[in-house]
Each structure stands twice: as C-alpha cells, then as structure tokens.
Write a structure and sequence with these properties.
Elements (H helix, E strand, L loop, with lengths): L11 H14 L12 H8 L3 H14 L2 E4 L3 E4 L2 H25 L4 H13 L1
C-alpha cells in the first residue's frame, strides 16, 4: 500500500501523508472507510507509531480524514477532499502564474503552456 523512500529528503510522516492523500484522491481509499490502525501501519512500515500518528494528524488537519474517538481514523467525504485539492491546486497555479509574470511571460504564452501540458 505504502512504500517509503529512504533516500527521500522529506520526513517519513510527510511521505505517508503524500501517499495516503494520493490513494484518497484516486478513490482507492474510499470515503468513510477506516484507515489502517496506527499500530498496524507502523508495524507494516517498520517505523515508530508516533510517526504514523503524526501523519494521521496532518491528514486530518488537511481535511483528508477525520477521527472517531475509540474507533480510529476514517477517509473524509470525497467531495470535501476533491474541493480541498482544487483549492490547493488553485493556490499553486496562482503562485506559478505570478512567477511567470515576474519573468515577463505573456498571458497567451502561459495559456499555451497549460494547453501543452494537457495534451501530453
């Protein structure tokens, strides 16, 4: 389910957040289904349970999951995660466009770049 890259410069919990959020956005982990328990995922990945707990807390903070006291963490509603991701992408695009403008790239050229990416 999750493969960690020991050569990745990011913290292990960040890698877990990235992988689980991808699985959620792809619909592999469906809404309202439980995430693996902290202990079982820590055992599966051979890492400290505190690292998994930190990843789960971050997933919840980002809106990808929610927790139920005594029952664990669950995947958030699909519409919520999708709209959250769209907001994140919008902010990223906004920053990229601002950078392009700083370098003098014209609006039509930016649109052309986006169209090129979609065609690939």
């Amino acid at each position: 389910m999750i493969l960690l890259n020991p050569m990745d410069k990011r913290a292990i919990y960040e890698q877990i957040v990235e992988k689980l959020s991808e699985l959620i956005m792809q619909g592999i982990l469906q809404e309202h289904t439980p995430l693996p328990s902290v202990r079982s995922l820590a055992t599966e990945l051979s890492i400290n349970p505190n690292t998994v707990q930190r990843a789960y807390a971050e997933l919840e903070r980002l809106g990808y999951s929610y927790s139920v006291k005594g029952k664990g963490s669950f995947v958030a509603a699909a519409d919520k995660t999708k709209s959250l991701k769209q907001l994140q992408l919008k902010e990223q695009i906004r920053a990229d466009i601002a950078e392009a403008k700083r370098f003098g790239i014209a609006r039509d050229d930016i649109i052309g770049l986006v169209e090129d990416v979609f065609r690939q």
